[in-house]
Amino acid sequence: MTKQILILGGGYGGVLSALTARKYLSAAEANITIINRYPTHQIITELHRLAGGTIDEKAVALPLGKLVGSKDVNVVVDTVKEIKPDDKQVVLESGTVYKYDALVVALGSETNYFGIPGLEENSMVLKSAADANKIRAHVEARLDAYKQSGNKADATIVVGGGGLTGVELVGEFADKLPEICRAKGIDFNDITIYCVEAGPSIIPMFPKVLIERAVESLTKRGVTFLQGVAITEATKNTVSLKNGQTIESNTIIWTGGVKGHPIVGSCGLAEDRGRSTVTPTLQSTSHPDVFVAGDCAVVFPEGGERPYPPTAQLAWQMGETIGYNLSVLVKGGVMDKFTPVFSGTLASLGRKDGIGFIGGNNIELKGLPASLMKEASNIRYLSHIQGLFALAY
Ligand code: NAD
């Protein structure tokens, strides 16, 4: 009998699970359905470019219908409301209930506001193409307001969090705002772009020399870094810092961290601090018919004490392992263990600058080569999913 495979989430983990499973399973063997809250597969590692205005939405939001939605992979645009792993059911916001033989949970993560007063109500985030468009429109509107009123809060942008998301975003602003200001007749020197980081250093996953390179390059281009100081409160027009300083700003963007998806943490799957615990084959430790990909899962290296970080490259690779293991669940055989390959970490600092380390020997890159390498890794991803798509049909 045809098995029902349900995939929750159309991000890296979900799409790669679907495409890889379809590579091994015919339509007669499995009916595969992706449920996603947007009609697009979003390249979230490039959202900072959409927010900054250097690319348009088409580059980061690929229609799922075109990518996987043929007669062989169904796409349902809806939001998951509840997962009932003991009943093998998923309930959607629309009220539709899906039954499954095998489930993939790949819903990503949520913004963590750490309970900081006023932050959630008064800040924007960068988790989707819609968020990026909102940031872009908001910044333009504040600049127009600044031109009218001269209110400094309209010319001040605060990015909270100096992780990769925050740093790549200020890099885009540093690149694009001079041009936008010129077009509006505003002096770019009037604009202040803050990146506030609570930890002792921004992007601590990089060697010191590359962090210094990033700070120097972005400072020269108009970014002010406040490191070792936490945001403690936000209002519509102010950001309070732990050192007592208050910044007047009408544009607050929060990139201070992520946490497990609330549905995943509370649905009855075995979990650890809101993320599903999984076996080496990426099955839930409590429900072997449920696979978990990307930020929803907490995955430890064999014998390791620290889990892998929640990155796009791991979500993608988890999706591929899960896709193959789904075929084993349906047809029999031996499942693959998840053995990630780390190709490195790259951060763009605008269009023509970047830092990173790549390959098994962690070769360090900076400047244009790093920025081009980041671009190449994006192209590699796009051609990979399109190649899998071609293989599947
Ligand atoms: P993150 O958790 O990596 O960084 C958040 C930063 O915010 C931390 O440095 C933290 O110290 C800081 N912070 C927390 N509370 C704060 C406060 N009160 N005030 C000021 N700063 C505060 O989050 P992220 O940057 O969104 O990244 C999430 C994941 O996505 C990471 O695993 C990252 O590697 C990945 N990512 C990768 C890329 C890339 O590969 N280029 C790009 C974006 C994100």
Topology of helices and strands:
Layout (H helix, E strand, L loop, with lengths): L2 E6 L3 H13 L5 E7 L3 E3 L4 H6 L8 E3 H4 L5 E5 L2 E5 L4 E4 L4 E3 L2 E4 L3 E3 L7 H4 L6 H21 L6 E5 L3 H21 L7 E6 L10 H13 L2 E5 L3 E4 L3 E4 L4 E3 L2 E4 L3 E3 L1 H5 L4 E2 L2 E3 L12 E3 L4 E2 L13 H20 L12 E5 L5 E5 L4 E4 L1 H25 L1
Parallel strand pairs: 1-2, 1-9, 2-5, 9-21, 11-12, 11-17, 12-13, 20-22
Antiparallel strand pairs: 3-4, 6-7, 7-8, 10-18, 14-15, 15-16, 19-20, 23-24, 24-25
Bound molecules: nicotinamide-adenine-dinucleotide (NAD).
Nicotinamide-adenine-dinucleotide binds next to helix 6, strand 12 and strand 23.
Protein name: NAD(P)/FAD-dependent oxidoreductase
Family: Belongs to the NADH dehydrogenase family.
Keywords: FAD, Flavoprotein, Oxidoreductase
Describe this structure in words.
Strand 24 (354-358) and strand 25 (363-366) form a beta hairpin. The mean pLDDT is 94. The longest helix is centred in the C-terminal third of the chain and has 25 residues, at 368-392. Helix content is 34%, strand content 26%. With 393 residues, it is an alpha/beta fold. Strands 5-2-1-9-21 form a five-stranded parallel sheet, covered by helices on one side. Strands 13-12-11-17 form a four-stranded parallel sheet. It has ten helices and 25 strands. The radius of gyration is 22 Å and the shape is globular. The protein has helices spanning 12-24, 47-52, 64-67, 119-122, 129-149, 164-184, 208-220, 262-266, 312-331, 368-392, and strands at residues 3-8, 30-36, 40-42, 61-63, 73-77, 80-84, 89-92, 97-99, 102-105, 109-111, 156-160, 192-197, 223-227, 231-234, 238-241, 246-248, 251-254, 258-260, 271-272, 275-277, 290-292, 297-298, 344-348, 354-358, 363-366. Bound molecules: nicotinamide-adenine-dinucleotide. Residues 45, 114, 116, 160-166, 168, 196-199, 230-231, 255-258, 309-311, 345-347 line the site of nicotinamide-adenine-dinucleotide. Residues 4-319 form the FAD/NAD(P)-binding domain. It comes from Paenibacillus thailandensis. Keywords: FAD, Flavoprotein, Oxidoreductase.
